[in-house]
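Design job #97: recover the sequence.
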């Protein structure tokens, strides 16, 4: 049986404290997420940079604000989690903005549609499912918190028209296991989608990268 250093009531109270403290930031997070999705569908000359900045901002927010400020009082491992999330935000900025290794273009294929399904799950299905399961606002994980935001990130990375660096998936994938394990232990069943998203996205990105490698060989 999984042991955690906190109870279910303490866990849910963290969400309540966070949501009440940062409101209406949740609305901003939804707006920037919708903007990122739109820019992947209707790309512009600067859309790649904006999408990366949005993703990096969300990960840095969770690493700097949520984990050390709100989660650490009940779990000291939050400082480690926060550091990992800051690293993820930094990796996104370095690889996406400075090295320009990512380009987001929705394509109507298995990768694009799967990614969009994960995005919609994170933004719409996740909170509705959570509410149906009895985890209602403000005592629920809203977008901008680790689990739904990680699912959203998986969905956006599947929109990359370039080979997505596998290093960008390591921290989100590890969190899909860690976050799911703890949340499932407390009956937060909507986080089953987190684990599924990780198990789907990692192999799909590997297959997509191989396909793009093959195309490069043919073109060369």
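Job complete. Output follows.
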């Amino acid at each position: 049986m999984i042991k955690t250093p906190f109870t279910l009531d303490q866990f849910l109270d963290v969400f309540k404290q966070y949501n009440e403290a940062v409101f209406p930031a949740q609305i901003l997070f939804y707006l920037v997420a919708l903007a990122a999705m739109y820019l992947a569908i209707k790309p512009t000359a600067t859309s790649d940079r904006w999408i990366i900045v949005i993703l990096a901002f969300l990960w840095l927010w969770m690493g700097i604000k949520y984990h050390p400020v709100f989660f650490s009082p009940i779990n000291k491992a939050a400082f480690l989690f926060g550091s990992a999330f800051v690293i993820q935000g930094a990796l996104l900025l370095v690889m996406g903005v400075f090295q320009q290794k990512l380009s987001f273009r929705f394509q109507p294929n298995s990768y694009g549609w799967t990614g969009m399904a994960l995005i919609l799950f994170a933004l719409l299905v996740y909170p509705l499912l959570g509410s149906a399961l009895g985890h209602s606002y403000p005592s629920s994980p809203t977008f901008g918190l680790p689990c739904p935001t990680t699912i959203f990130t998986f969905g956006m990375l599947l929109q990359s028209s370039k080979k997505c660096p596998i290093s960008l998936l390591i921290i989100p994938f590890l969190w899909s296991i860690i976050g799911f394990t703890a949340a499932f232990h407390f009956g937060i069943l909507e986080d089953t989608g987190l684990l599924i998203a990780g198990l789907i996205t990692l192999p799909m990105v590997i297959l997509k990268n191989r396909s793009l490698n093959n195309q490069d060989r043919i073109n060369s």
